[in-house]
Design brief:
- The chain has about 270 residues and is an all-alpha fold.
- The protein has eleven helices and two strands, in the order H-H-H-H-H-H-H-H-E-E-H-H-H.
- It starts with a helix and ends in a 9-residue tail after the last helix.
């Protein structure tokens, strides 16, 4: 019979996996015409990363304290809700335990760092950026604009081929020639600029389509970092003889794959 703690941990892991899978799926689909999808993705990813990061730190404490999990005050005051702090603590844990990572030892790529920073700021207050603007509260930043400028633009510059970019430009010009006399566009971009012509709208759609697989890949690499760390800590914690530790590696198994497999999947909310 499973212990109460075991059941709580497995439910937490399952919930976290579903949040991460949902966020990884949604971030591929978000664009200037579906801005609400950005907020869905950011909510799921920031929640999921915080929780899987906390599971890692809880196991580290469990190992160091003879099978005792941290108390509420430790979780609140020492860890809190800051994804950046949780990541820095995870690096200390990996170094302290000499954990050899199969994939990424650190999330030090500028794109990974931008993703962590944007999600951390979203969790800390940017999720209310629209309401804050309306009511005149102190506004940190627009998370969608931050993502576009710090993630999508660099990905488009570095990961999309020149031939693909030329094809996007050519397609936008051709569509504008056919539709511009008969179509009207009324949208705003991720950064808040007005989109009023067909060519601009088409070019932005092409850009999003080209960037989407890469933004999803980088998000999944971030998720995989914590999955790998959690799996390693799980086996060390099990060596204490406790019956409270589930096989987290089984729950998060779909995320524990190399990039070639990750890039074959578009949807992660049903894994």
């Amino acid at each position: 019979m499973f212990t109460e703690t075991f059941n709580a941990l497995i439910k937490e892991a399952q919930f976290t996996k579903e949040m991460l899978g949902s966020g990884a799926t949604q971030i591929r689909n978000a664009n200037y015409a579906a801005k609400g999808v950005y907020f869905q993705a950011f909510t799921s990813l920031s929640t999921g990363l915080e929780r899987i990061g906390k599971l890692c730190l809880m196991l580290d404490h469990f190992i160091d304290h003879n099978g005792q999990f941290p108390d509420f005050n430790y979780m609140k005051n020492e860890i809190g809700h800051k994804i950046g702090v949780i990541y820095e603590k995870s690096l200390v844990v990996a170094s302290k335990r000499s954990i050899s990572m199969q994939f990424l030892r650190k999330l030090d790529d500028p794109i990974h760092q931008a993703i962590l920073r944007i999600l951390a700021e979203f969790a800390q207050g940017d999720r209310y950026s629209n309401i804050d603007l309306i009511v005149g509260a102190k506004r940190q930043s627009d998370p969608i604009a931050s993502w576009f400028t710090q993630v999508d633009i660099p990905l488009y510059a570095t990961r999309v081929s020149r031939n693909k970019k030329e094809a996007i430009d050519g397609n936008a010009t051709a569509i504008a020639a056919m539709l511009a006399p008969h179509a009207m566009v009324r949208h705003t971009s991720e950064t808040g600029d007005e989109i009023t012509d067909v060519e601009d709208a088409s070019r932005r759609t092409g850009m999003q389509t080209a960037v989407a697989p890469f933004r999803q890949l980088y998000v999944l690499q971030v998720i995989r970092y914590w999955v790998e760390l959690l799996s390693s800590l799980q086996y060390t914690a099990m060596q204490t003889g406790s019956e409270d530790i589930p096989f987290f590696s089984e729950v998060f198994a779909p995320f524990y794959n190399d990039d070639s497999y990750i890039r074959t999947r578009k949807t992660w909310d049903t894994v």
